[in-house]
Amino acid sequence: MSRESLFFAVSGTFFGLMVGWIIGSQRAPQAAPAPVQQTAAQAPAQGQQPARGVDERRANQLSAQASAEPQNAAVRAELGNLYFDADRFDDAIKWYEESLRLKPGDPDVSTDLGIAFYYTNQPDRALAQFQHSLGISPSHTKTMLNQGIVLAFAKQDLDGAAKAWQRVVQLAPESPEGLAAKRALEGLRSAHPAAGTPPAGGGE
């Protein structure tokens, strides 16, 4: 199954430096697009690269297969990936949702759906979908990494973002997600030293 890593840079009131991100749970690394500069307050769709074309031949093949195999969740997830990779997030959402209706216990597809919600300016739906993913797989570090991104940049919840990233580091410190979470925490604490730190005399 194809996978892709999305790299983007963020700056502004949250970070005093640029942080490289890796998001995406099912797609394998490809050549990264040029980083996008966006402030914390910007909606993700406003700073995206121009839409890439979809492989219409492949899309038609997969659509025909999906019609012929109404219980095939994998082909629907693959269609979601195809449209996601072309920045056609509304189409990706449709196919991810169809896949999850057939196979609701897939945390990778669930997390990709959450990312697609984020890119269509639906951060609350993204966070709810990430919670669903974590209900399926509580140690799904890619979900936690993305959860932190949405909490920080869409909801301005720096403490919540820090907790999500700290959990990633605890679970998989040397994984790509763990290394990305470490960079995120370093940048966050550089700009906001108190973020994610329990108050004096108490806290978790």
CATH superfamily: Tetratricopeptide repeat domain
Helix proportion range: 40-55%
And the CATH topology? Serine Threonine Protein Phosphatase 5, Tetratricopeptide repeat
Largest sheet: 3 strands, mixed
Distance between the termini: 40 Å
Features:
204 residues; mainly alpha; Serine Threonine Protein Phosphatase 5, Tetratricopeptide repeat; 3% strand
Folded structure, characterized:
With 204 residues, this protein is an all-alpha fold. It has one domain: Tetratricopeptide repeat domain (Serine Threonine Protein Phosphatase 5, Tetratricopeptide repeat, Alpha Horseshoe). The chain is 54% helix and 3% strand. The chain contains eight helices and three strands, in the order E-E-E-H-H-H-H-H-H-H-H. Helix 4 runs parallel beside helix 6. The N terminus and C terminus are likely disordered.
Task: Reconstruct the topology from this structure.
Layout: E1 9-10, E2 19-20, E3 37-38, H1 56-68, H2 73-85, H3 89-102, H4 107-119, H5 123-136, H6 141-153, H7 158-171, H8 176-191
Parallel strand pairs: 1-3
Antiparallel strand pairs: 1-2
Helix pairs in contact: 1-2, 2-3, 3-4, 4-5, 4-6, 5-6, 6-7, 7-8
